[in-house]
Design goal:
By secondary structure, this protein is mainly α. It folds into two domains: 4-74, lambda repressor-like DNA-binding domains (434 Repressor (Amino-terminal Domain)), CATH 1.10.260; 79-127. Helix content is 74%, strand content 0%. The protein contains eight helices and no strands. It has helices at residues 4-14, 19-26, 30-37, 49-59, 63-69, 75-83, 85-93, 96-127. The model has no long low-confidence stretch (mean pLDDT 86). Residues 106-128 are annotated as: Disordered. This is RapGH repressor.
């Protein structure tokens, strides 16, 4: 499994940035960033959520991916899980194929919802 450090290094290199450049953008010491990228940190030294958010922003990367790789649950996810724990318990018990079906259903629902919103906007404009 990819670690958060490996993923940060991979994205940083894709963006043609040095460790010093990224560290400067984020406001951290480049030696700390080197230790993160090389997985040379104790558990309590793992980057905090706000640091990972800054790294993701500087790299134009997915902050949630970095947070999850660092075994940190993003606050927005935590709030949703705590608000509806039963839903998440059921999702955890689902097979991969059932999850794919659920995802397809959600995508279809959100696509049709977006189309409905667009249609409603067009109707309002025509009514003006």
């Amino acid at each position: 499994m990819t670690t958060v450090g490996q993923r940060i290094r991979e994205i940083r290199k894709e963006r043609n940035m040095t460790q010093r450049q990224l560290a400067e953008k984020v406001g951290i010491n480049f030696t700390y960033l080197s230790r993160v990228e090389n997985d040379r940190l104790d558990a309590e030294q793992t980057p905090r959520e706000d640091t990972l958010q800054k790294i993701a922003k500087a790299l134009q990367a997915d902050a949630d991916e970095l947070l999850l790789l660092a075994r940190r649950i993003p606050d927005t996810y935590r709030e949703r899980i705590l608000a509806k724990p039963g839903i998440f318990r059921r999702i955890i018990q689902m097979s991969d194929s059932d999850l794919e079906g659920l995802l397809n259903g959600l995508e279809t629902a959100t696509d049709s919802s977006a189309k409905d919103d667009t249609s409603e906007d067009l109707r309002r404009r025509k009514a003006r």
